[in-house]
Amino acid sequence: MLLSHVLVVGASAAGLATAEALRRKGYEGRLTLLGGELHPPYDRPPLSKQVLAGARSPDTVRLRTSDVLDAELLLGDPAVGLDPRTRTVRTASGRELSADAVVVATGLRPRTLPGAQDTAGVHVLRTLDDALALRSDLLVARRAVVVGEGVLGSEIAATARSMGLDVTLAGPRPAPMLAQLGPLAAGLLAELHTGNGVRLRLGGAVAGLEAAGGRVTGVRLGTGEVLPADVVAVAIGAEPATGWLAGSGLRVDDGLVCDSRCRAAEGIYAVGDVAAWHHELLDTTMRLENRTNATEQAIVVADNILGADRPYVPVPYFWTDQFDARIQAHGRPGPDAEATVVDGDLAGGRFVLRYARDGRVTGVLGWNMPRQARLRRPEIGGPVPSLEPSAP
Ligand SMILES: Cc1cc2nc3c(=O)[nH]c(=O)nc-3n(C[C@H](O)[C@H](O)[C@H](O)COP(=O)(O)OP(=O)(O)OC[C@H]3O[C@@H](n4cnc5c(N)ncnc54)[C@H](O)[C@@H]3O)c2cc1C
Q1: What is the DSSP secondary structure assignment for residue 22, as one 8-state letter?
Q2: What is the DSSP string of 121-173?
Q3: Is 189 left (phi over 0), alpha (psi -120 to 50) or beta?
Q4: Do domains 5-109+239-305 and 112-236 have the same CATH topology?
Q5: Are residues 174 and 203 in contact, defined by beta-carbon separation less than 8 angstroms?
Q6: Is residue 213 scored above 80 in pLDDT?
Q7: Residue 108 alpha carbon, nearest atom of ligand 1
Q8: At 236, is the pLDDT very low, low, confident or very high (cuts 50, 70, 90)?
Q9: Which of ligand 1's atoms lies nearest the C-alpha of 293?
Q10: Is the pLDDT of residue 32 over 70?
Q11: How many whole angstroms from 275 Cα to the centroid of ligand 1?
Q12: Which run of H or of E encompasses 289?
């Protein structure tokens, strides 16, 4: 196919990385990046950490758009519809943009609790504006409740506590990040939080918000108990931002469903948090919500737009920073695998866990041991080594 215009919908990590990869690989045609937000592309991981804490200003999280990118950046004009047959995208302002290839990179929309929109002091955290709004409320608050014990909720709780607030973390699972890390590491994370003064109210349902005069006053648990709060951060997950694809005929099922080449239809691709693609090696349709995936998938999508026939078969990877712990997770270190310490030691706060199930390594987790964890990454997918190499 002759390629003269590529349109990327979603001007953030994955969309920008796709555009940059296209240029690096020699694409010289027209390139358009359409973004729903007014901000130029920026990086999200610092939002729940340094930006929330005030250690980094908003201008430092801007993603570099290199001079050679030579793309038209249309900001503050969300896509509202797509005709896959003509590859035409309609925008909120009435633009109609047609291209030879359309890349869907619209990420996620956070879920929230009923009534949150009309209640002052209740926040979600997905965008830079969300982070700044939450920060300004944290600065004048005394008590914060974070709802949701996943990665984002645990990070917000750690940051808010580091800012000196009285912080409670509430959520249905019995330990922070249990679903991502399994019981051993999640138990250690629980100790890290409580050791730093975060109150954990985990393992039970959250029923809703309490408010007075339009402002939040607390979070009601399933037991009826109310956790008092001046500010509440809701981090209960997010949904792929695919509403604008309704009526397009494309298959949407927890993300834009794609083949193993990240292609949803002829000339239509998906990348980043929004993409549900077929992982050939694992033989399953999956979606990843992490920063490294946004970059790695973009490279494969750019290749395929340019005529390659590459399946996307990554080893998933994410990191999180909480208090003095930098945790790096390669593969799938989930609760369904058995975790064993293979480097360092738990008491010293520096170690590597290997996760295994049915005799095969499923994941590796580094806790303040990035290099050692990375060195063990090639073990993932293979049989559990019977003899340990001597520690480097
Ligand atoms: C607070 C926070 C902290 C994080 N920390 C970590 C971390 O420590 N480690 C890690 O690995 N990952 C982390 N992540 C995840 C990581 O940031 C994401 O995986 C990454 O941003 C995904 O990039 P993306 O481009 O697919 O989606 P996004 O970054 O969500 O970008 C999607 C863009 O599309 C735009 N958009 C949506 N709908 C439309 C539309 N209809 N038309 C046009 N534009 C639209 C959105 O406004 C947005 O700008 C974090 C995420 C958040 C929110």
Answers
A1: H
A2: TEE--SSHHHHHHHHHHHHH-SEEEEE--SHHHHHHHHHHHHTT-EEEEEESS
A3: alpha
A4: yes
A5: yes
A6: yes
A7: 30
A8: very high
A9: 19
A10: yes
A11: 12
A12: none
For ligand 1, which residues put their CB under 6 angstroms from it? 9-15, 34-37, 44-45, 47-48, 78-79, 105-108, 125-126, 152, 241, 244, 272-274, 289-292, 294, 318-320
Distance CA(180)–CA(156), nearest Å, equals 16
Most ligand 1 atoms within 8 A of CB, residue of 7, 106, 323 to mutate: 106
**Ligand 1 atom 49 nearest Cα:** 12
CATH number, domain 5-109+239-305: 3.50.50.60
Residue 115 tokens, joined: 């009534």
pLDDT band at 66 (very low <50, low <70, confident <90, very high): low
- Tens digit of each residue's pLDDT (9 = 90 or more) over 179-196: 999 999 999 999 999 999
Q: Within 13 Å and on the Cβ side, how many CA atoms surround 264?
A: 28
Q: How far is the CA of 291 from the centre of ligand 1 (A)?
A: 8
Q: Cβ contacts of residue 202 below 8 Å, gap of 6+?
A: 149, 169, 170, 171, 172, 173, 174, 175, 176, 190
Q: In terms of residues, how long is the chain?
A: 392
Pocket test for ligand 1, best of 12, 52, 80 (most atoms within 8 A of CB): 12
CB contact burial 347-369 (16+ within 10 A = b; e otherwise): eeeebbbbbbeeeebbbbbbbbb
pLDDT digits (tens, 9 = 90+) for 293-337: 999 999 999 999 999 999 999 999 999 999 999 999 999 998 999
Q: Architecture of 112-236 per CATH?
A: 3-Layer(bba) Sandwich (3.50)
As assigned by CATH, the class of the 324-379 domain is: alpha beta
* Residue owning the nearest CA to atom 38 of ligand 1: 106
Burial of 374 (0-12, 13-18, 19+ CB in 10 A): middle
Residue extents of the structural domains in the chain = 5-109+239-305, 112-236, 324-379
Q: Tell me, rounded to whole angstroms, the distance of Cα 182 from its chain centroid.
A: 19
